[in-house]
Specification:
Blueprint: E1 5-9, H1 14-24, E2 30-34, H2 46-62, E3 67-70, H3 73-78, H4 80-91, E4 96-98, H5 101-108, E5 116-121, H6 123-128, H7 130-138, E6 143-148, H8 152-157, H9 164-180, E7 186-189, H10 198-204, E8 210-212, H11 215-228, H12 230-233, E9 242-246, H13 250-261, E10 267-269
Parallel strand pairs: 1-2, 1-3, 2-9, 3-4, 5-6, 5-7, 7-8, 9-10
Helix pairs in contact: 1-11, 2-4, 5-7
The structure holds D-glutamic acid.
D-glutamic acid binds next to α3.
Length: about 270
């Protein structure tokens, strides 16, 4: 019995990672779920993010998915460890749930020459210190300066990522980051929504600073994981089929989702 890989985000952001995964691994079947009805997760407590993420992971398991990717930094930072260590052994010991922070931390040190990286994320991701800890594990000599950008996801989810307000808030948070770490040469977009602001982010950063998105990093890491874990790979169906689900309006999801995914998206509503 084989089934699709589950890809999860609080909303649309995970689609920026999903498009890289599909480009790299088009042969597999996938189910994408955006919990748009309860997004954004970024300012919510640990307990709430865990509860919401676990609801979605259980939904994927009911759909049969043997492997779920949390394509959401906030969920990866605040819920993944508890799900892996506490919930999975009771719920579904044979299934796997992976996040986006560790694969990113494993390679981000290769982008910086100054050994100074800025991490832009939601309040939840920044407060968890997950990136500081994980990057420190793989690259102990790298200085990590984090900056929370609480207005960015609401602007993006509302379709206002090209507005004057977006310019204002992009400049504001980047100025705060650069004041803390004027020597940085690499900025990591540690929220899967932020690639939609990448042009504005580049506009307000001094030239020569690399802006790193996670999509290709996570796709490469997943490909490597499946090569190393044939026992998981053989449980995944491979007819190239993609299904999209949202906990909110499918019409809204289709309209906004296509911008994140880079091609048209046709979703269905689901209850969790
Ligand atoms: N896209 C999610 C992330 O990568 C966060 C969005 C939210 O605040 O719900 O962190």
């Amino acid at each position: 019995m084989t089934a699709p890989i589950g890809i999860f985000d609080s909303g649309y952001g995970g689609l920026t990672v999903f498009r890289s995964i599909v480009a790299k691994l088009p042969q597999y079947d996938y189910i994408y779920l955006g919990d748009n009805a309860r997004a954004p997760y970024g300012n919510r407590s640990f307990d709430t993010v865990h509860e919401y993420t676990l609801d979605c992971v259980k939904w994927f398991f009911r759909m049969g998915c043997p492997l779920v990717i949390l394509a959401c930094n906030t969920a990866s930072a605040k819920a993944l460890r508890t799900i892996q260590q506490q919930d999975l052994p009771l719920l579904a010991p044979d299934k796997r749930v992976l996040g986006v922070i560790r694969p990113t931390a494993e390679v981000i040190g290769n982008y910086t020459r100054n050994h100074s990286v800025g991490v832009l994320g939601t309040v939840g991701t920044v407060k968890s210190d997950s990136y500081k800890l994980e990057i420190g594990h793989f690259f102990p000599n790298i200085k990590v300066q984090q900056q929370a950008c609480p207005m960015w996801v609401p602007l993006i989810e509302n379709g206002d990522y090209d507005s004057e307000s977006a310019d204002y808030y992009v400049k504001k948070y980047l100025d705060e980051l650069l004041t803390q770490a004027p020597d940085l040469d690499t900025v990591l977009l540690a929220c899967t929504h932020y690639p939609l602001l990448a042009d504005k982010i580049r506009k307000y950063l001094p030239t020569g600073i690399a802006v790193v998105s996670q999509g290709d990093i996570v796709a490469d890491s997943l490909s490597d994981y499946l090569r190393r874990h044939p026992e998981v790979e053989q449980c995944i169906s491979a007819t190239g089929k993609i299904d999209f689900y949202t906990t909110d309006s499918p019409e809204d999801f289709n309209e906004h989702g296509s911008l994140f995914f880079g091609r048209s998206v046709s979703s269905k509503h689901t209850e969790l």
